[in-house]
Write a structure and sequence with these properties.
The chain has one domain: Alpha-Beta Barrel (Multidrug-efflux Transporter 1 Regulator Bmrr, Chain A). The protein is built from 5 helices and 4 strands, in the order ααβαβαβαβ. By secondary structure, it is of the alpha+beta class. α3 crosses α5.
């Protein structure tokens, strides 16, 4: 049996930075993403995170139960939640130096192992939708980092 892939141990340079700045080469990664606007204090923000984790754990746990797994499959530790934040265009145009959290725009994401491709993402998304009637699952996307 193959050992679980532990990103915390094997990818320290990417996820657990040192105290001193350093330049690192970040390769292309695959992510499941969801976008939104507004304050992270609003319930929709938490619900979007819930939709992300719902699919990510569907992928992880369904694979453990499958007789046939995707090419290159390995058990893995779920990657951490990541996000890219900005402010909307109106807030940029009228920026006074103070930020209103309701003006936030964001993309939340969770990295996926190399063996997850867009086809497999879509397949697992349908499994997740059948298990949980969460309308936010329809907002999830599969993306590759630049």
């Amino acid at each position: 049996m193959q050992a679980k892939y532990e990103w915390r141990k094997k990818e320290k340079a990417l996820y657990l930075p040192k105290n001193q700045p350093e330049i690192i080469d970040v390769p292309e990664f695959k992510f499941i993403t969801i976008e939104g606007t507004g304050s992270p204090a609003k319930s929709i923000f938490t619900e979007k995170i819930g939709a992300l984790y719902s699919l990510v754990y569907t992928i992880k746990m369904t694979l453990k139960k499958m007789d046939v797994t995707p090419k290159g499959y390995y058990d893995f530790t779920v990657y951490p939640l990541e996000g890219v934040w900005g402010i909307n265009e109106a807030a940029k145009a009228n920026f006074t130096g103070e930020i209103n959290k309701d003006d936030f725009v964001y993309k939340l994401m969770i990295r996926q192992p190399d063996f997850v491709d867009e086809y497999f993402f879509k397949e697992m998304l349908e499994v997740a939708k059948a298990k949980k009637k969460n309308p936010l699952l329809a907002q999830l996307n599969f993306e590759r980092s630049p």
